[in-house]
Structures are given as C-alpha cells and as structure tokens.
Write a structure and sequence with these properties.
alpha/beta, six-stranded mixed β-sheet, 317 residues, 2 domains, five-stranded parallel β-sheet, 11 helices
C-alpha cells in the first residue's frame, strides 16, 4: 500500500519518534500507540508514548503499560498521532507537531479532519486494526506475543468484545492472526468485557435508574452527575460501557450519556442503532466519532444541554 510505504520511508529516515495518544485515553488509543512504540523500538528507533492525561487504572493490565508517558525527549524527528479525529483531541501534545520534521496520523474515525502531513484514515472497528495492518506489512518480524496481546486488548475494548455493529470479517481475521501468539486472550476478554468493580456497579444502579426516555422511547438520556461520582467513589472513566445497557433496549435508537466534568461543563457520549448516526449528531456540536459511537463537549445548564441534544437527536431518528 502506497501510503504505508510513505509512512515506512519517513520512519526509516527518523531517529526519534513520538507516538501521541488522545486525551482521556481509552484502550484503543493506548494500545495503538504502545504497539507502535514497541515495534519501532525493536527496529532500533527511539520511540516514546505521549499523552496529556493519565490512564484509567483498568488499563494497567496491558503489557508494558509502564511505557505510558515515560519520556526522555522534548521533541522528535517524526510525530505519529493515533486514534484522533482532530487536533483538539490531543490537547497540549499538539505543540509537538510544529517541532517535528514529519507528522503522521493513523485513525479510524469517519469524522477525521486532516491535521498532519500524512493521514492514513481507514474506517475500522478499532484503530488497532489499522496499526496491525501497518506493522504486519513493514515490521512483521517484530510482532511477538506482547505486541499481539496489546493489539488484541485494543480491539477488544473498542469493539465491545466484537459486539459492535462496526465489527466485520477484517476484525475477526486480524484477531485470528493475533491469537496465533501465546498470550492469555481469555484474561483480556474477561477483564475488559465481563469484570466489574463494586463502585462501578453502584454508579450503574444509581444513574441508570434515572434514565429519561423521549420520542416514544427512541431516545434515552442518562446524566452522570458529580454527586453520583462522589457518592460511588467513581469518575467519568467508570461510565464506559454503561450506555450499552441503554442502547440495547429494543425501542431505543439513540442513547445519550451526559457526564458532568465540572460545573456547567459536560462530556457527551452517544450510542446509536438503526438509521441514527452518532457521528452526524456529534459533528453538529463540534465533536466526532463513528456511526454507532461518538462524542462531544457541551457547556451550560444541564436542562438546556439536554434540550439542545434532544432537538438534534430527534432530527436524526
């Protein structure tokens, strides 16, 4: 593939490479970045994983996670941004881009806005699939059980254990190749898909009981307040996955999760099915994502935020 060749040639002519994960990092961005860092390090490059935020403790199970934000350099010959649809997603790390000789994006969001010299955009159920395709084409000899486990973990987290509608034969084919390596895939699957903490369970019980339904139950909205987080010893990261309980309700076509970050500041997560497009809704508010999962940020009183979102959601049923 020509674009992979272009990326490969840039990497081969670079001594130092910074791989940037997006803010509020999830499993897919962390695993995409970490797999690249390990493969390029084995190639003899100085490769470091950079991110503005700390990781969810749930991701500590990922092999070599100690490399997350373990930095020795302040600038790099080449910067590779993974799993980020626009430059705002990487926050302060964007300051690395002007200082680099070359910049590259590897992303899978349909709403991707080009902000690097080279952008590889391929819609896939996870960005780890794109990273696997690149590594397997040019650095296949460096894929070992550790890198395979990392990529598998990223795929599992972003596909909901292969349960999302974006999963296709390519997703399963790549997973099949990774499973040929000797790692405990059952442990990864259980940890990210089935295992839960008491605190998260209590957040679920407290918040989902307050779910509001609109438009003949086609739209569902749940608010995770700062009080909810405080009383259950949780935070916004603990809401991951809870929207699936709502979108799986037969009548619901759009599930909206509103997490209170601070006073009058909210992070919105969307899950959809049927004809509803989460990315279209998110783009209206300056966000982005995928057809079935997207997000954005909104400021204001929560009642007004809900009203604004409902109007756009109703137009996208």
């Amino acid at each position: 593939m020509k674009i992979f060749n272009d990326i490969y040639n840039i990497i081969e002519n670079s001594s130092s490479i910074g791989v940037v994960a997006h803010k509020n990092p999830d499993g897919d961005t962390v695993c995409s970045a970490l797999a690249l860092v390990l493969a390029l390090s084995k190639r003899g490059k100085i490769a470091e994983l950079i991110c503005d935020d700390v990781i969810d403790p749930k991701l500590n199970i990922i092999p070599r996670i100690e490399l997350f934000n373990l930095r020795a350099l302040l600038s790099y010959d080449t910067v590779i941004v993974v799993d980020s649809s626009d430059i705002s997603r990487i926050g302060e790390s964007s300051k690395l881009l002007p200082r680099a000789k070359h910049t590259i994006s590897i992303d899978h969001h349909k709403t991707h806005e080009k902000f690097t010299e080279i952008s590889y955009l391929q819609e896939a159920s996870s960005n780890c699939e794109n990273v696997y395709n690149f590594i397997s084409e040019h650095y296949n000899e460096y894929i070992d059980a550790t890198i395979a486990e990392i990529l598998f973990a990223g795929i599992i987290t972003d596909t909901g254990g292969f349960g999302n509608s974006s999963v296709n034969s390519d997703s399963h084919a790549i997973a099949s190749q990774l499973l040929k390596f000797n790692f405990d895939s059952n442990k990864i699957y259980y940890h990210f898909i089935k295992a839960n903490t008491y605190d998260t369970f209590m957040l679920k019980m407290r918040s989902l009981s307050k779910t509001m339904f609109f438009a003949d139950r086609q739209i569902a909205v749940v608010v995770f307040s700062q009080e909810d987080f405080k009383n259950t010893n949780t935070n916004m990261q603990n809401t991951s996955g809870l929207l699936y309980d709502i979108i799986n309700i037969e009548e619901v076509k759009i599930a909206v999760g509103i997490s209170e970050v601070k006073d009058k500041n909210f992070k919105i997560s969307l899950r959809t099915k049927g004809n509803a497009d989460a990315a279209t809704i998110a783009q209206y508010f300056g966000g982005g994502g995928h057809t079935r999962a997207a997000g954005f940020v909104r400021n204001g009183y929560v009642e007004n935020v809900i009203d604004e979102i409902l109007k756009v959601c109703a137009d996208n049923l």
